[in-house]
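To: structure desk
From: M.T.
Subject: fold request, one chain
Message: Could you run this one when you get a chance? Sequence is below, nothing fancy, just the single chain.
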Amino acid sequence: MTESPDLIYTSRIIKASALIADTKLLLAEWNLAQSVAEILNRARRENIFGKASRKRVEDILLIFRQRYFDDADVGAALVTLTQNGAPAQWIAPLFYFFSAQNDRTLRDIVIEVLYPRHLAGYTDLPVQVVVRAIRNWVAEGKTTTRWGEETITRVAQGLAATLRDFGVLQGAVNKHLTPIYLPTPSFALIALWLQQRERSGHLVLQSDDWRLFFLPVEGVERFFIEAQQEHLLTYNAAGSVVRIEFPAASLAEYTHVLLTNQRAR
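Reply: Done. Structure tokens follow.
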């Protein structure tokens, strides 16, 4: 995928962070028979997060809805996995991936800064590396407004903290790159999401989004072969012709396939 020249980056990461515990709590309480609005209203009334600030509750609910329920199929898949005992290791990378899809600032700092740094053999990530990348975006007019140094620093700190919480970085002060663990079922679910969007096996294989997990194309192909061996999908490649088939049409349906496969092993 090619980056749009007029891409706009936001500073929402300052308020967002990973929100892993809050997200798990809300998904565990979710009722797919009710509307998103009904459930979020109940979460407000009952203050299920136990937050002292109403404003913070509103921030969390807005971020949650944007990340996981702008696409109802994504939300339903995460609810199904959470409420049916899927391993935590499956769910964590999905939170990370779909959070990055919702926030291009988060996505592109990994794809354009962390991934190349990883390829170059670096394991450390000085905050100034992130600050410099954001300054370049500001200079290129890619941010929602012309951010000052304070906003640039806060966005850089928010990105580093969020990526640490998602497991992509380690270290309280000095950050180090640690590619997040991606189980094969999580890979397969992401592959189906990409297939629905790209409508091309070749484009799925070549997608820049795999760089969120520091995966080169060869690594992606190894995952597809492993997923086929686990009977999660069918993968055939001959040159530039790549055919990927899944035993379900939607993410929510596919989660049941993944869970059934896990129980049978």
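Reply (cont.): Residues 1-5 have pLDDT under 50 and may be disordered. Let me know if you need anything else for the meeting.
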